[in-house]
Specification:
The chain has 246 residues and is an alpha/beta fold. The protein is built from ten helices and eight strands. Strand 4 (126-131), helix 6 (139-148) and strand 5 (157-160) form a beta-alpha-beta unit.
């Protein structure tokens, strides 16, 4: 089954990076405090920004244009996102950052993540990220996390839901990632910790799936993934290598 795999797509939070999840009351309180502080504190009292807010020109350059054949609803959604961002200037991104800052500050790369990434690269697999951006937070915050943990050189393909316009398990975010990888679904393995968004979503487009048991409260039973693992290191026993180069 796994002998035909040429590419591996990963979820980010809960799979490669640990984001300690607070309870909803605690998360709401953090969001309120962060937003309030942003609105009432003078600029010199603000904590250093987590990441630089892109200026309008840079933001426009980062946005992909909808591909030919993109459904009308997707085009409308992307247009609305752009309109809101252009009207809100830098205030809306900074408010989103204020809410997300505690989560970002407490994050850490799982110990097994980088060794497995390097091993898969050495074996010739193409790698990519497909991640939902929670609470409508802008993708530049999560790109800053990719840079912080030095993941960018290893993941040339990165699909964040706030850019693509659809969240996992919607098949369209997976299809965009596959198109950028240039690998068919049947030759791609998706690795994630969410039974619905990751396992069911990726399987719905024909990918093989690996469910990793961490980052979320465990379900009553493992989802119907092709493999269920406790650590990323277990992938190395399932995926052969090196792969043939194109």
């Amino acid at each position: 089954m796994f002998s035909e795999i040429d590419a591996v797509l990963f979820d980010l939070g809960g799979t490669l990076v640990d984001y300690p999840a607070p309870s909803w009351p605690r998360a709401a309180l953090r969001c309120f405090k962060g937003t309030y502080a942003y609105l009432v504190r003078p600029g010199h009292q603000q904590p250093p920004p987590v990441a630089a807010v892109p200026d309008p020109g840079e933001a426009a350059a980062r946005r992909p244009n909808p591909a030919p054949g993109t459904p009308l609803i997707h085009r409308v959604m992307l247009a609305l996102r752009r309109m809101v961002r252009s009207l809100s200037g830098r205030s809306l991104p900074r408010m989103a950052e204020a809410c997300a800052r505690p989560l970002l500050a407490e994050s850490r790369l799982y110990d097994d993540a980088m060794p497995v990434i390097l091993a898969l690269e050495a074996r010739g697999y193409r790698l990519g990220l497909v991640s939902n951006t929670p609470w409508g937070t802008p993708e530049y915050l999560w790109e800053s996390q990719v840079e912080r943990f030095r993941l960018a050189p290893h993941f040339p393909v990165r699909c964040f839901s706030s850019v693509i316009g659809f969240q996992k398990p919607d098949r369209r975010i997976f299809e965009v990632a596959l198109g950028r990888l240039g690998v068919p679904a049947a030759k791609t393995l998706f690795v994630g910790n969410d039974p619905e968004a990751d396992v069911a979503g990726a399987a719905g487009v024909g990918m093989l799936t690996a469910y990793i048991r961490r980052g979320l409260p465990p379900p009553a039973a493992d989802p119907p993934a092709d493999i269920c693992i406790d650590t990323l290191t277990e992938l190395l026993d399932r995926l052969p290598g090196p792969r043939k180069k194109d």
